[in-house]
Each structure stands twice: as C-alpha cells, then as structure tokens.
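Usage example:
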Amino acid sequence: MRIDEKLTRLRELMNENSFSAYIIPTDDFHSSEYVGDYFKAREYMSGFTGSAGTLVVLQDKAALWTDGRYFLQAARQLQGSTIELMRSGQPDVPKIEEYLEKNLGEKTVIGFDGRTVTKRFVETIGDKTDAKQISFDGSKDLVDVIWTDRPPLSKKPVWELHVKYAGKSREDKIKEVRAKMQEEKADQLLVTALDEIAWLFNLRGGDIAHTPVFLSYLLLTKEQITLFAHEEIFPVQILERLTQEGVTIKPYEEIGQAVGNMPAGTKVWLDSGTVNYRLTQKVPKDVEILDQESPIVLMKAVKTPEEMRHMRAAHIKDGVAVTRFIHWLKTNVDRETVTEVGAAGKLEMLRSQMEGYLEPSFSSIIAYGPHGAIVHYAPTQESDVEMKAKSFCLADVGGHYQEGTTDITRTIALGDLTEEEKRYYTTVLRGNLALGAAKFVEGVSGQNLDVLARGPLWELGMDYNHGTGHGVGYILGVHEGPQRIHWRVAPGAKSIPLEEGMIVSDEPGLYLEGRFGIRLENLVLCRKGEKNDHGQFLYLEPLTMVPFDREAILPELMTEKELECLNRYHQRVYEALSPHLDEEEQGWLKEMTARIQ
Amino acid sequence: MRIDEKLTRLRELMNENSFSAYIIPTDDFHSSEYVGDYFKAREYMSGFTGSAGTLVVLQDKAALWTDGRYFLQAARQLQGSTIELMRSGQPDVPKIEEYLEKNLGEKTVIGFDGRTVTKRFVETIGDKTDAKQISFDGSKDLVDVIWTDRPPLSKKPVWELHVKYAGKSREDKIKEVRAKMQEEKADQLLVTALDEIAWLFNLRGGDIAHTPVFLSYLLLTKEQITLFAHEEIFPVQILERLTQEGVTIKPYEEIGQAVGNMPAGTKVWLDSGTVNYRLTQKVPKDVEILDQESPIVLMKAVKTPEEMRHMRAAHIKDGVAVTRFIHWLKTNVDRETVTEVGAAGKLEMLRSQMEGYLEPSFSSIIAYGPHGAIVHYAPTQESDVEMKAKSFCLADVGGHYQEGTTDITRTIALGDLTEEEKRYYTTVLRGNLALGAAKFVEGVSGQNLDVLARGPLWELGMDYNHGTGHGVGYILGVHEGPQRIHWRVAPGAKSIPLEEGMIVSDEPGLYLEGRFGIRLENLVLCRKGEKNDHGQFLYLEPLTMVPFDREAILPELMTEKELECLNRYHQRVYEALSPHLDEEEQGWLKEMTARIQ
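Running the assembly step on the lines above writes:
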C-alpha cells in the first residue's frame, strides 16, 4: 500500500470513530528509544524510518515532527507524500499541541493507541487544547486494522548476565530499590522501561534490535516481585532461579489488570513520563500516585566497579576492530570498490572476530561525503554510494560485547583533504579534547561542561544541532540517562551531576548540508580525582581506544595543551591496542599515533 | 551593651512571648541585599557586619549562618561570643531548618519580625518543622525593644533620573508592566523590591548606603498606581509630576492595610521570594495569588540602548580614577605610609574628581596581603594595616555615576612577587579572559559559561567559593538578577539566558587563607553578534577599562589566544583612557598596556 492509501484508510477509520485527529508516535508500550518491528506503526504509516518522530493525521492534512538529527533524512523520506515535515525547535515551527489546538474544532476528539504515548505527553497536549474542550481516546489502535501484514510481538529468549559482569546480584539490586521505596513510603513500584527491568534482574533479551531487552513490565511491592512477560521466553533454568528467588511471572498482557487491582489506600511510584497512558488511566482512584523518575534510572547509570572494568576490556576489543576497519578503509578505498553498505559489512565482520561480540549496539552509520551531514544517516541499498579517495567517511558505530557496550564515531580522511575540511576537523577535535580533559568539582553536570565541546565551533559562528553527550547502558540501550551533556535542559528536567561510574559520550560535530559531516565521539568514564580543601574533583577517563585521523589535523590551530592531550591519548591507544594487532597493523598504528608537534 | 547581654535580654523577651527560637535575618522589609541602619538588627545582635547572614537564637545556644564570602570575616567577628558560626553549604553544616527541627521540641513557637523574612523562607522552615507541629509568630520585633538607640527609618530625598539616561519613560515602563499583568490575567501587582520601584519610576533615593533607592511599596492595578512612601521625601516638582501622571502617594506604613483591602475575587501578582511574610499573610483569602517573579526583574536587567551607551561612559570615568589609583598605589607604597583605609580614601578622592560621580556602589574592599583572602573584607580602623612593597593589594571597588554604575576588582602587585603568586594570578586572569572572550548561541545562560572562568583553576585542583558573575543595576543595586554566572543553580531557581543588554561581572578569584587573595573582575555587556544558519550568536563586550597588572603575569603559562585577548583588551583600555590622562599618567599606562608576547 502506498503512504497516501494508508492515510486514506486511516481517515476512514478515524471517521468511523469520530476522531478529528489521530496521533502515531514512535514509541512501543515502554517508551523505548528503538522499538521492535511490531511497534513500527509510525514508520509504516509515514515511510520515515528515523528513531524519533510523531505523525499527526487530520482529515485534510498530516504532519510529522522530528528533531535536528533527522531533518535531512525526513525531508528525503517524506518527499512525494502529503505529509508536511515539522522541524521541531526551529523558529516558526508549531509544537504538536499548538498545531492540534489551531486545526481542531471545539469538542472534537483526538485518538491514539494509549499504550504508545505517556500520560505526560497527553497532558502537554491537553494544556493547550482543554480550552476548546477537545478530548482524548486512547483505546483504539487504528493502525493495527490497516497493517494486515504486521509482524507479531517479538518473543526472543532471555539470557542471564553473570554477576561477575554486572557486579551486583538481582537480590541486592531489588533490596536497594525497596529501600528507596521505603524512603518514599511507596507500597508499589511500577516499572515499564525495558532497560530498567533488564538491569534490575541481570537478564537480557532480544526483543528490540540492538537493545538486548525483553518485553515485560514489573510490579514490585514490599513482599512481591511480579514480572509480566511471555513465559516462553525464559529458559527453564532461569525460570527456576527466578521462582526460587520469589519472582512471579505473569502473562505480558495482564499488567493492565494488575494495575487496575492495586489495593485501595496504597501508594504507587510510577513515572508518568515513561509509563504509558493507558496503564496510568487504570490506576484506581483510591491509589495515591507518586509521580517521579524510577529509582532504577540513576542506579543503572552509575556503573559498578566490575562494569567499569569490563567496559574497558570491551572498548579495547572494539578499538581493535574499529582500528582495523579504518586501516582497511584508508588502504583499500582506492584499490577496490568500497560502498557504505559494503564497509558496514566489513566492520561487522571485523567485530564478529572479537571474542564475546554479541551484536551492533545501533545501526551502523557509515556515511560518505554529503551523507555525513545527515546526522543519523544509516546506509541502505537504496542510498548506498561508492566511496572515493577524497573527502570524509563518517563512521558512527557501536557494539555489544559480553563485557559491555561501545559507541564511537570517527571521521576518516579517505584522501587528500581541503584546508577547509582540515580546519573544521581540527575544530571539532579541539572540542572533543577539551571536554575529554575536563576536571571539575562534584555537583557539576553536563549542562555546565557542554561549552567546552562547542566553544571552538561557537568561536567560528558554527554549532551542531544535537547533544554533546549521552549515557550508555551496560549491554542495554546505547543511549540512556539521566546524565547528558547539553547546555540546554529540557523544561521540567533536572540537571544531573556527573558521578564516578557514569559513562557519557563526548561527540561534538559539524554538518554542512550537501557537502560533508564531521563527528568525533569517544565514550568517557567519570572518575574521582583529588579531594582537597577546594572540594572533591572529578575527571573523565577515555574508554574509547581508536586513533583520530592525523591526516585531517592542522596542528597549527591547536594549543600546546590540546596537542599534549591528543598525543597522550594516542599513546594510550597504541599501548592498549598494539598487543592485539599483527605486525603490519602495529606498524600502521604506530604511525597513526606518533607524536604531533 | 555586649553581645551576650543583648542575647540574655532577647531570651527574656522570648520567654515572655513563649518563643523557643527567634530568627534575626539580614533583610529589611524589602528583601534588600544591603539595608539601611534602622534595619541592621542582625549586626546589632551578633556583631557580624557582613551583608548576608541569619542569626538564630535559642534559649541555650545561638548560631549564625553565612556564606563562603564571609566565612573568615564572620569567624573573626564572632570570636569571643557564644554564637556558633554555621558555614552554609559546607559538609556537615545543618541548614537553618534542620537546626531548628533538631533543637526545638514539639508544639513550640518560632518568633521573628515577619516584615524581615519572606513567605518562602518561612515555608522552607515549615517543610522541616511541621511534623513537630512547630508554629510561627511573625508579629513581634523583639530587637526593637532591646535596641534603645536604634537609628530612625531613613527619609532621604528622592531625585529623578532623566529619561535621556534611563532610555524609557516611566509611562512606557508602566505600560509594559501592565501588558505583562494582562498576559497573566493579574488585576494587581504588588512590588516591594526597592530597586524595582526605583527603576520603574525613573526615581532614585538615598535610604540605603550605596544603593540609591527609597523606602516604598508599589501596588499597581489596571487603573491605579499607588506608591506607599514617606511623602516628605519627594521634592515638590516630582510630586507634582507624579500626581499629573496618575500616581497616588500614600503613607509607607499603610501598605499592609491596602493589601488587606484587596477586592475579593481579584488576582494579585506577587513574588513570595521577595515580598515579606507579614504582607503576604494580609492578602485576603478570597484573593488569588499568582506567585512568581515580578515582571520588572527581567525588564530592569536588560539595559536600554541609552543605558548601555551611558554605562560605557561611566566606565571610562571610573577607569580613569581606578587607573590613577593603581598608578599612585604602586608608585607610593614604598615612599610613604599607605594603609588600606588611607588607600580607600585616596580612591574616593580620585573618583570624586570625576564629573557626575555620585557615591561608591558598595563599601570599598582594599585588602592587603592576607586580608585579600577574606572575600568581602572591608577595611576598618580596627583591621587597617600598612601596605608594603611586596605581595598583593586586592581592590574591589565600584561607583555610581550620573551615567551608570561600576564594579571592578584588580589585584595589584605592590612589589616583587613570588613565582607562586604570579602563577596563581595568571591562572585567575586566564579564567577572566576566557569568559570575557566567550561567544555563544542565544539561549545559553551563565550556568553554561561558568566553567570557562573556573576551568584553569579546576585544572590545578583549586576553586573559589563564590559566583563568577552577577548582574549590575543602573544606578541601583550593584548586585542584581536574574542572570548570574555560576555552574550551580539554586534549587527551584531558573537558568536565565543571557540577552543583549544584560550586564554581568566576570570575577574569578583564588583565596589562600592567611596568605593572599586574587580576584580579577570586569563588567561585561552582552551583545548580539552574527546571525547565521547555526543561530544567533552573542558575545561579551568589556565595559571595565582598567589594565591588569603585567608585573603579576607569567606569559609562558598563557596560550597565544589568551595573550591576544589580553593585548587587545589592553589596547582598548589605552585608547579609552589616555585622552583623559596627563602626560605622565599616559606614559605609565602605555607601559602597563604594552603588548605582552
């Protein structure tokens, strides 16, 4: 079916249900960033494949909101459809709620699948539309009617992450969560975020590509631990252990009923920013809601000493694979036909040679030339191009290993660069190095440090339209909170101080539409440094071990301190990787990491 | 009366009133930062003269809370008293509310003069003490009973700031404020902050030393403008003009009655963070309160083009006076007896030679050697020391001129310095220059930029226990909000983006107790720079025009860019000041501002 046929069909169904608008967000039932195939309703209805975006369909028009990472990709993918692209955050672009308020009449109804949006999302719209007495109906999944060949819900097997990797048993984790519940006098904790559940249970699954989680809900009380999931996904041994430890498994679909049956007079802790609308609507009126972030979010972000140790090991493995990839790419781009898709395949092959490699932690971005300017470009057979021995290849790639998760971006010079290309590369690199070298006092957040990465670009009157850094899960989502590096904090959100054990990415970039893109990303681990009269100092230890491209660097634009940072990092990379490389690769890496004066 | 006698007397009065605790804050009835002599109850009762601090007296003990600027000064001034010093924000130091909760029994009463605290302050305590059913009584000013020689309320004459300086008439300002009221559907606006009232009316007064405001309250409705103030402070011409413009003057003391008489069913806009507790208690139950920051705060912070232009002129005048002062001090410290108090007098004399000079904008800090480590030290006859031709003199001084207000800190080398002194001076200077050179996109706040000033110190494992920057009023308070430069934002406070027309100070420092202090402060004006696809850029224009001390600089610790910033600034200083200097001074300034390689 063509996109416009699907929209026509949807509008018929909207008519039947008296919906004046229908909202199709990206989310699954768990507010996941990436979703399983069953949940790709927005992609199915709009043709836009990005990981963030909301489609709003009215009777006479339709629009899709997405963020800066996807402006170029969405414009391309929506071309030829009747769906208007709304570039979120740009001047003169209305918010979804403003668009609805403007275009809908009084007392109309907005429909959506209430399992795919949060209560907070609905409230945000309501704040704007209430004056027109517009109401909501979250009970109908209209896309399901149109989408006859919809894939089934995923039920991939669950596996256990050994405590030697996790560093803390699920009993201990549950004990800590219950202590937090007690502090807040909460009788029940409702957790629906899949990575929180996987982290708490030291279990991993396969229900979302690149994010080893399993479809489930958790209801935790002082006495009971109830996991709502498809029972068949648990291997027998795991099921036995869970049962021994007092965990009850109930069918995935029964969560609504369980929420509806919460005992009167109790207090439930849930986060209306992640729990889906339909579930929050089921909380009985006589149950008090404590609406705040789940205690698991911060616990999960602060890695255990074992997780930190294993993360370092995973990054050396990944560093070997990515360094080999860069060596191969720079050597062969002029000798054989190398396309983006082909290069992505080569990298996957090199990674799979590393012991303990599991899968990519997100769709590899191998973007040549102008494709590099599309922030979250992922090559497809349709978009694929051959790379030549000039300009940049931007590779933003990551993997899950038995020991942890990686996420790295390198921008690779495939031949002689122009002075301009080198100048911009060096500027982005200066930002990356400045943030990576940050030393700061306890209490400081990523909001305070972002200027270090952006400063060199701001100085040139340039910027990038994405955050500088995100947290990274331990064999979970490659993007996780609550910490992040961005000067701006979303309204209502809190600035989260960096703590020892937190991992963040350090990834400034520069994108020149139609020309090229540059992004340089290391993961760094927040560590405690000296403590003295002035306070407890923290610093960032680099986890990523892959050289920057010396052929793209103009040392004369860098300060001595910046060069010193670069040389020190390169020396560290050489020491970490060389024992795992063959002689030729070693020789090459030695050259790539030699001191720059 | 000795401090302990005063406390004994207070405890008797507390007993008579059944108060288990009595709180004496620094505030006047208007939450002013500095207060008139009538209001110096905390100073009278404790002996501590700093501009911030709260005394809490119980039957068996007493404690005084103050912030990092005053730790050393308060420790010195409380020595020998029974008052315990509480260093706010330090580890293991309880907050006032925690102290009260811990030390008071159930159902006890906390007393205070309800005009000298805000509702928010009382609520913060209540959040902690409510569980013990502790109540508040804000109706008694017990200090007034003890303080028999209390100075009267100040009634200094009001003068008018010509619209050619203010850049906007009071009619226009009131119109803008009323438009904001309309947006918020507020029927009344209650303004009690003295600088807001002075700004709105383009009037200045003399009721607080260094802050040219007049004691008053404002009640603004759609139709009426009622100013509660002592009528005798208005010169006849001003009184006539105000009357012509529809302003009603009522007695200062009648504000409580006016608040109590607000019509039922109306909505009053007030900020419970500045309006005093007793006034907020008088708002009738059937009047809705819109509790948020007054619209005047942001309007006042964004200077008009006329204010910006005049501010530059004021800073050149002040630059001439301060530069002459530095020249004099460095030349004469070894030739004659120069004490801190004497030097402060000399500076005041030099300033008063400048046309349009009004008064200091705060008590001059002239701090020699170890005194420089006391962040808000002000020399007194008792503390005064003679300066020698070695170490640093820290001079943090400012003035009100007919054209605007200045605030500058220079740390002056009085003789040969040690390498360590130079290293630290250079480090602080690097922070000052980095922040001053910041270029950033619209939306960025001081919270995002603070790291630029602190970074060089953090790198050495050092820090300073005060904000990096504050707003500055236009012939009003030398400290004003809402913008500020600090990585930390107080809980509940908002991060305020910098806008064109805002002035902030740029004043990193370093304090080594018992040895010396370094602080380098320029005022900078936020300006719009280029606007392109990446956004609207902003930059900071230096207002302060006084050279840094080249004898304290180690150029080898600075990057080329930092040296370039310094040289460019010095060239600008020379060009601005030299036309106003005599030949000898010119020659000296030429040397002081010569290029450093």
